[in-house]
């Protein structure tokens, strides 16, 4: 887009601290931090020092040095107390993420990835039972919100930098993916009850953003199609973007004016793109507009990530002020055990990711979506877009008749103009023929002075009108062709709905085909079941590793026995590893069964695809005919106006042509008579005996007529003797040749 409108972002409130038996000055500086990046730095330092303290003094839950820690729960405002220093760490970490979210929502649009990192570390390294605002569901929601907003910031920068359309589309699609995850969490009844009244506001904003950024993604996919000169794809992407933006506008009721302005701006951009693309395709390119679901879906490009939090990073925490309080042996041993757990997790995840990659590639190559494999239900109904057109025509029963009458009137005026132009052309050609004939008779070009004016102007105007008529004739022919193309469809749309439904193609499947289809769906369900089980086992493993803290055992274990203790402790993961191995091993058999089922499904798939393509084409053709009606009426009226004006001009020109041709004929007669008068009188000859018959009484072809003719013609000048009788003056015109 030419500019980048901004959407508001969600930011989180900071928790308020209560009782904690710690140095008052340290406590105050840690919980009353300024709302800026200096405050973030203070929280990180305090978090690091708490970690150092906790690793040396038994201040955890149920330990000897544990003291009450009180913080206010965000959503309810209640004070929550735990005798656990990790609760203090968790609340500080939460505030670190909340402060980053607050800074990220400001104009500079930064710090969202830091917020996601803080909440991710909090979710993965601390218990979720401390308070509602730090439950697993709420933290996962916060992470997806922050990642979505971080990706949104990246999208803004990408559009300002004029990055490639396909990349911008993928970035925008990933924004949608993050917000969809957040929306699923918001729709969860348990999460909704935890959030309270704020849930509705967040959900409404997130849902609106999902449609808005989906519209942005399809807008840039349309721009990419335009760059690739795929004009049919361009139309459907811009149409989809327009549909999604309209949904966003519906969901934006009650949002601030900045949101409304952003939506209006985006509507101007997308609406203009769609109207221009559709008009160009309808009248210039004529490419088939594919169905949106036949095009490859836009896969998101996750270009942001939760920035990792390292509580013990000396660059952040500064010097360890508790370094002398506790021996480091137990801490070092705990770190070694954590590394063993991390190694176990890495090994398992490497196997899972390898299998997932194979599965994803296989499913992509198959192009089998469980939700769209069987789309037979759509053939039982007239699609809403077509119902809308039928309803519109039902209240305009004269649509077809008006169009036909308008085109008939246009044809009549067109024919009249063509006939008048032909008559003018015939008159001019006849005049030219007479002029050439006179020149041949006189043996020279007749003198110009005294020639009638106007014929040249008439000829020039006639040529101009003929050129206009010829150009308009092509347009008129195209207009009639377009009318004939859409007339039958308009009649169908204006008729009974049963006929419209009958005109739409429907698939015909045998019982064997239906069994093949059901078998494929069953195996696809197995694939999804395998995926879900794998994700569940992975999550169980992660949670088990996160909760596995053997610090107490390490304190009482001799250093030489550490390795043996590690091995014994790691055995608790064997059962989960077995379940995961079984799940991964089953993948080969499931994919083999899916391959066999897909082979049998090939013929059914081809038949369904062909019917669906015909169905979509028919729907698009009928919709296009409806949308072409107004344009045809407008163009036919413009044609009538043009030819009515041209008819008046041609009629006047015809009158002028007739008058000019008559004047030209009279002028030629005058020239001929003047030429005859210029000839010298006949020389005197010997008297002839009187004629027995008067010239008018002589029989044609008789000897008397021949003799008189020879006498008279001998007295004519040499250049006039070859004139035809009809051009000779007086009685000479009656003589035989």
TrEMBL record:
InterPro entries: ALIX_V_dom, BRO1_dom, BRO1_sf
Region (Disordered): 665-705
PROSITE patterns in the cross-refs: BRO1
Keyword match Coiled coil: yes
Pfam families in the record: ALIX_LYPXL_bnd, BRO1
Keywords noted in UniProt: Coiled coil, Cytoplasm, Endosome
Single Gene Ontology BP annotation: endocytic recycling
Gene3D superfamilies on file: alix/aip1 in complex with the ypdl late domain, alix/aip1 like domains
Cell compartment(s), UniProt: Cytoplasm; Endosome
Domain BRO1: start-end pairs: 27-359
Gene Ontology CC entries for this record: endosome
Sequence ranges of Pro residues compositional bias: 679-692
CDD domains: V_HD-PTP_like
Cytoplasm listed as a keyword: yes
Coiled-coil regions, chain positions: 414-444, 520-547
Biased composition (Basic and acidic residues): 665-678
Protein name in the entry: PTN23 phosphatase
